[in-house]
Write a structure and sequence with these properties.
This protein has helices spanning about 1-25, 55-65, 70-75, 80-90, 100-120, 150-155, 190-200, 220, 225, 230-235; strands at about 140, 145, 205-210, 210-215, 250. It is mainly alpha-helical.
């Protein structure tokens, strides 16, 4: 009887873990009508920075260290500055004519800044997963629209055919791609996305050798995004210092959801 109960608990725990990951990769499937250009190119007439992300840039330099760990207590002290930036973002209604690069920078900064806001509103907290509806609650304001973090990620950013966004948005957890110490901007978004992708793939978030690879669960949850032009291994090999053989065994690392708080 004990063995039966134990097996049942294991099955339920595994199902819950799968459901949780599935929720993260599909939460908020509604763009609320916000523009999501599908082209991977930015037209020259629409390129160029329209928004000033200077306030967010200053806050990141002040409260995020080079390892991507966040001083949330410091952010709390600068709450007025963060609120000013959130208000500025929310007052801007993105338009198709902004161009792909401006939209990418806007949505990535929107996601990251409101994730910090979410943590501060629930601080102290051990994990973002302890916050009810972290990815599904529609608390991000864009003009008259309210959208969830999951909506921004899954119905806007992922629709822009740019898999590198997975290494730019930060879910306030240890295993997440790190929050960088600068705001994303239209005039250098491509260089920034290249840098964070290469850095993440070659970090300790992955264990890569020629004949095997233990990858971040990001590559499992969002595998479809990385397979647009080949396999997950082929995508990783574009950035990895160690090239993985095509027949190598692939597994995925457990995700550490502890808060990415600087000690």
């Amino acid at each position: 009887m004990k063995k039966i109960i134990l097996s049942f608990v294991i099955i339920i725990s595994g199902a819950c873990m799968f459901a949780s990951c599935n929720l993260i990769s599909s939460a908020g499937l509604n763009s609320k009508g916000l523009p999501t250009p599908e082209t991977s190119e930015d037209s020259s007439e629409n390129s160029g920075q329209k928004l000033d992300h200077g306030t967010w840039n200053s806050l990141l330099k002040k409260h995020v260290n080079e390892n991507g760990m966040v001083d949330y207590k410091g952010f709390q002290k600068d709450r007025a500055e963060l609120d000013k930036y959130l208000k500025m973002l929310s007052s801007q209604e993105p338009k198709e004519e902004w161009g792909r690069d401006e939209l990418l920078a806007y949505y990535i900064n929107l996601y990251n800044a409101y994730t910090v806001d979410l943590i501060l509103r629930n601080y102290p907290v051990k994990s973002i997963k302890d916050i009810n509806g972290a990815w599904t609650k529609e608390f991000v304001k864009v003009g008259d629209t309210e959208i969830s973090l999951g909506g921004i990620e899954n119905s806007i950013l992922r629709k822009m055919n740019e898999p590198r966004i997975h290494f730019a948005i930060n879910c306030a957890s240890i295993s997440c791609p790190k929050l960088i110490t600068e705001a994303y901007t239209a005039n250098k978004i491509d260089q920034q996305l290249e840098r964070v992708t290469k850095e993440f793939i070659n970090s300790d978030k992955n264990e890569i050798s020629k004949n095997s690879a233990k990858l971040s669960s990001v590559f499992d949850w969002y595998a479809k995004d990385f397979k647009e032009n080949g396999t997950v291994i082929e995508y990783v090999n574009q950035y990895s210092n160690t090239k993985i053989n095509s027949g190598a065994s692939i597994s995925y690392k457990n995700y550490n959801w502890d808060l990415n708080e600087a000690k």
